[in-house]
Amino acid sequence: MEQIVKKIQARDPEQYEFHQAVEEVMESVKPVLDRNPEYRQQAVLERITEPERVLMFRVPWMADNGQVQVNRGFRVEMNSAIGPYKGGLRFHPSVNLGIIKFLAFEQVFKNSLTTLAMGGGKGGSDFDPKGKSDNEVMRFCQSFMSELFRYIGPNTDVPAGDIGVGAREIGYLFGMYKKIRNEFTGVLTGKSLNWGGSLIRPEATGYGVVYFAAEMLSTRSETFKDKVCLVSGSGNVAQFTTEKIIELGGKVVTLSDSSGYIYDEEGIDTQKLAYVMEMKNIRRARISEYTEKYPNSTYVPIDPGLTYNPLWNHVADCAFPAATQNEVNGEDATNLLKNGVYLVSEGANMPSTPEAIDQFIGNKILYGPGKAANAGGVAVSGLEMAQNSMRLAWPRDEVDSRLKHIVKSIHHTCLDAAETYGVEGNYMAGANIAGFVKVVNAMLDQGLV
Ligand code: NDP
Ligand code: 2IT
């Protein structure tokens, strides 16, 4: 296994995030390999860590001032053993092949856990939507899709949103796909409601993260009532994580963006959250504005000199990292534990560094890894695909109850797999093992392809 990791590192030395994601899964599935000698002969680790297909393309577009811009587009089609490639698109200046590969790799296991027939993929661009006009975003999306359309389709590869890609971007992408292909199909999820979107999809990731946390709490006969919660980010996942925590009786005291975070000791209630949503989704403003509206709160800008994030250094019960990868490091984990946090449910993909995870697991807190805890989002994407195929739309309650059911099943599957392999209560190992076994067995059933 070490040799395989070394080979992956040597082959693409700059893909740090991908190496990190692979190492975590490899560590967890060791006992599975020991019990299944045929997996080695079949080189399942080598096969599952190599994307089925990697697409990279030029995305030229014109800025409002007439200046031509060029970005790079990506789609990594990682694994299609259990269904069409499925996973979001990320538009953020930090995007590179290593980041998209890590996200696509995580997506394979996450999608496997959802119980739905979805393979894993991820894509995106180093395009930065921040500060761009709607017209610029539209022209970028149209150019991006005028190349991506060759590789995707409702039974081949179905992208969705991620950081920097929400309903607005999905609309522009869908419009271009429909025009070029002359077909109206469920080729993207996260669509708006009146043209094929599913109820609850916008809420699904955040709600799922909280449902997963509620399941973890229930193993200790506890509920969300009066729990003090730290949430990072203030985008799609953070907003609906906050909404559900409030609904279940908890109190959210932080939110953030890439400039800094706000701390509101009184709690972000429904009214304050509505303000945040209007500010972030409509006006696309910065979270610092919150303190102008609610002067009892404080704003702390990012201090590049700090080795830890002060957001994770407040007294609380639960933490919900919902911004980006590696946003909780070893020092942050120490601070969280010191401040009484005993539940971490990951809204973001791979938000905790290996050093942080070691502490969560070592201290036996309730630690829900992203690929289990945030799988509700892609699960409802799967439900959106099902509704599109049937040309039907389910009511809100039906989608929400299916989401709850899927999250419960993921929680159960993680605990079950962990127990089977002698790592009771370790959700990370359980998620990796259960996700892995299902995909690998499907690959073996389908022969050497
Ligand atoms: P959004 O674009 O809606 O929001 C992202 C939020 O995170 C913003 O507040 C953003 O701040 C902040 N953020 C992004 N990058 C950084 C960074 N490098 N440093 C600090 N803050 C940052 O994205 P989502 O809410 O959709 O995604 C959040 C996380 O959840 C991601 O890790 C994503 O992969 C994961 N996820 C999303 C799902 C979905 O359905 N949308 C499903 C499962 C997981 P700013 O505005 O300043 O950039
Ligand atoms: O990371 C993720 O699971 C997503 N960004 C959502 C993927 C999807 O296809 O809905």
List keywords for this structure.
449 residues; Rossmann fold; binds NADPH dihydro-nicotinamide-adenine-dinucleotide phosphate; seven-stranded mixed beta sheet; five-stranded mixed beta sheet
Output the number of helix runs: 17
Q: Mean pLDDT, rounded to whole units?
A: 98
CATH superfamily of the domain at 202-373: NAD(P)-binding Rossmann-like Domain
Give the neighbour order of strands across the main sheet.
9-8-7-6-10-11-12
Residue share in helices? 40-55%
Rg over CA atoms, rounded to whole Å, is 21 Å
User: Might you state the CATH topology name of the domain at 202-373?
Assistant: Rossmann fold
What is the oligomer described by this structure? single chain
Name the CATH architecture of the domain at 202-373.
Answer: 3-Layer(aba) Sandwich
Count of DSSP strands: 12
Span between N and C termini? 22 Å
CATH class call of the domain at 202-373 = Alpha Beta
In terms of DSSP E residues, the strand content is 5-15%
Shape: globular
Q: Biggest sheet, in brief? A: 7 strands, mixed
Q: Helix/strand-derived class?
A: alpha/beta
Residue runs with pLDDT of under 50 for 5 or more positions: none
Please provide the ordered H/E string of secondary-structure elements. Answer: HHHHEEEHEHEHHEHEEHHEEHEHEHHHH
Ligands bound, unique: NADPH dihydro-nicotinamide-adenine-dinucleotide phosphate, (2Z)-2-iminopentanedioic acid
